[in-house]
Design goal:
- The chain is an alpha+beta fold.
- The protein has 2 domains: about 90 residues; about 35 residues.
- It is about 45% helix and about 15% strand.
- The strands form 2 sheets. It has a 3-stranded mixed beta sheet.
- Strand 1, helix 2 and strand 2 form a beta-alpha-beta unit.
- Helix 2 packs antiparallel against helix 3.
- The longest helix is centred in the middle third of the chain and has 20 residues.
- The protein is elongated, with a radius of gyration of 17 Å.
Amino acid sequence: MNEELQPYEVFAKHMEEKYPAIFSQPYGGFAVGEGWWPILESLCGQIQHHINWKNKQSVIVAQVTVAQIKEKFGGLRFYYDGGDDEIRGMVRMAESWADKSCETCGSPGTSGGKGWIKTLCPTHRAESDARYEERFKE
């Protein structure tokens, strides 16, 4: 049976093929919503560009390899090995960007909600809260 790839599988494959050095170790996938995928793609592109550029300048920067990417308490967490101070800054910037972006669609969002803390836009927040209330109706 030849099933069509789901959006998550397409994104993961794209990232692993585009940034093979960053995703060279087992990392557990992308445990975040689709709205944060552009942030991750931008971050990985900037990281790899920085490493390649620095290493051409004879300033050796250890290759970044991802250990884990996930959402925790409504925020993006990007755990990795390697890099330098500039890359640490890039990661903090991406995490800050995600703190203000809906994890579902990428629109401006805020952290909070009923049940799990998530960063969502008003539309997805209302949907999430309604699902939570429906689950716990008496």
